[in-house]
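Quick one before lunch.
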Amino acid sequence: MTDRVRQPSPLSRTALTRRRLIAGIGAGVTAFALPRSGLAAAPADVAADGFRVLHARAGNARLRGPQEAPTPIWGYDGLSPGPTLRVKQGEELKVRLVNDLDQATVIHWHGLRIDNAMDGVPHLTQMPVEPGQSFDYRFTPPDAGTFWYHTHFGSSEQLARGLYGVLIVEEREPPQVDRDLMLVVDDWRLMENGEIQPSFGNFHDAMMAGRLGQYITLNSQDTLDLKVKANERLRLRIVNTANARIFGFRIADHVARLMAADGQPCPPEIMRDGVLRLGPGSRADLFLDATLKPGASAPIQVDDLRGGWLDLGRLVYDAGEPMRPQALAEPTALPANPLPKTLDLGKALVLDVPLDGGGMGMMMGGMGGGMGGMGPGRFNGYGIPPQQRIWALAGIAATGHDGPPMFKVDRGRTVVLNFANRTAFPHAMHVHGHHFRQLTPGGGHRPYWLDTVIVDPERSESIAFVADNPGKWTMHCHMIEHMAFGMAAWFEVT
Ligand code: C2O
Ligand code: CU
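Model of the copper (II) ion complex:
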């Protein structure tokens, strides 16, 4: 990554330094691994018909610690992260979204292979839910794993303000861990007074890496201290909810095993160099054995994009007896989910999908007549004006979802997409309704099922999936400002 990408703005540099200072002087407060962002969390609201009612509304979060003024946010039930939803694999989830905001919204269930009508994409799968209105989401998640739910309307603003939460689908046979914790990583762009800086969806961010915040939190807390006992095994569900930031994540002095990527189990794998690289939208399930001595501590860190590390929290070991005399034996893989058994690459529909546009002068797709010249608008539903079409997929800048699909495919056929990044920025390409394999040269694939893949500048990634879920699905860059400025498309499985 270039230096230009690493330094989004002077504001960011100052505050990153300050963020590091705060962590460095040990000003952390002991906290639980649960979101406590709301000052007055309302009890869960369950309607008479069994629907869990989620209110999208304004709230507050103490992002900068208990001494500082809280930050006004938008969240589900006024919380960010919103309430963690838990359901057992094979059980139905019923959620009623009530919109208490003063603009329309929707909920998208990221990574869930569910009915198209429940996917929460405005104008493509449902109409936006207007202020004062509600919408019922009802589905049975097929896969156990770590997922999340978030707004998919006016996302540059709504996601940056905090409209997201974690959805955990529990395995029928839970694995042996002592505790199951979520770690939501987000970056907030705050002003001096602690309020969210309101320059959502601005042209500069969109042209560059997207909206990068300068204040990074775990579970919306200033410093998250996790109390552990020696030889305890933790399951950590890491979720990157940032609009645009790719995080390098690590826990110092520990060996963490990757057990699932984007919700789907993978062969257990010790994290290379101890660092997990997680793009916007992605999740990772880690198993971590607390192998230090009682009384020890170890920082939980993310990279600062400039070669340094920021402390976001710590593992703080209890000084008393270890939980057990020694750590547990190596874990076996999590139980497999009902994913397609085979990919028929020979009969696949193969599409080249170059990624073009943006700033830094590397685009090769030809911008035609300036910023508005990325070719004819394929879509029309978001009302994106021509001058905002600065990114493109396969030569076409999206303006909404009313136009024709990028492709149609018969149900059950394998689709191969060859993403080629011809821009100066990484992109996190996300496909709705399906998980895919990352192909390797020679016809193989990597051992994960992903729903979002980072394509670095001047690199290509080929993905393959079985189009087994009928409906109209969007795919887009999960750097939200890139999506909002054209890097989006949809396809239909018939
Ligand atoms: Cu998490 Cu269309 O996205
Ligand atoms: Cu992008």
